[in-house]
Amino acid sequence: MAGLQELRLSDRVLIRLNLVSEIDGLVFRGTGISSSLQFSFIKALSELGEDIIFFEHKMVSSCGLAGGLFVSAAAERAKTEALERDSLLYHYRSGMAFLPICDTAMNISPLRAFSLLSACPPINVVLVTDDSRCTGASDCLIFGTGASKTKTKALENALHEYLSQKENHEKNPTWCGSLEQSTDALSNPDFHHLASRDIRNIAKFKLLCESRDNVVADIPKREHALNWEIEYIPSPIRFFKYVRASSHSLLTLRPRLEESGATEAKPLFAPFS
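-> structure tokens emitted (273 positions)
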């Protein structure tokens, strides 16, 4: 089953494609957003396969998992997925503010875009969100992250992810709340959204969004010699290849109870003890 929708943001026209597949009574989904229907379809089909793999392999995190028409493309996407998560966790755990993108050529008003520090400097990592999240006025964090060799492409990827998350929440406003009632929320691929409702994480996100021009000159270097571990995963989608990439040098997020805020006073994005 497929659903097609046109999204408009300022002078941008984007196509959102939703794919839904039912297998043995279980529903799997994939979403693709792009200015091209072809790329929206490829992205949606890729994500559908990722959703199936997550369930079949009983994964506890989708970090570093990606698909593509070619192994090389899937591997590059998997690496950027892992770098996105690492960059977000670095800012959360170090407390260093996100870096506002002020380039008028990359304006996405009324949304806001930030650069995140990348562990692999040739790769740019960008975060996109809106004013209500930046000011702590919302009861749920919604943002998108993207990574690419060019900042423009990273911004585009982050924007598409943000729009996807926003549409999901608008269509089902109680979705995040229902996760809190789930006994297996921490084994759900969307468990991180449970922490996105944590008031401590909302407050921390607000602080990270506050511009601190006086510290921009003191940005630390994060360059690492990353030794990637690549796992090739059997594909549930014909013609697609799936890869999982990881590196011991990168920060990771695991669904541990003491980090979820469910039973202890420590939010999900806090440092490991």
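The CA atoms of residues 169 and 175 lie 7 Å apart.
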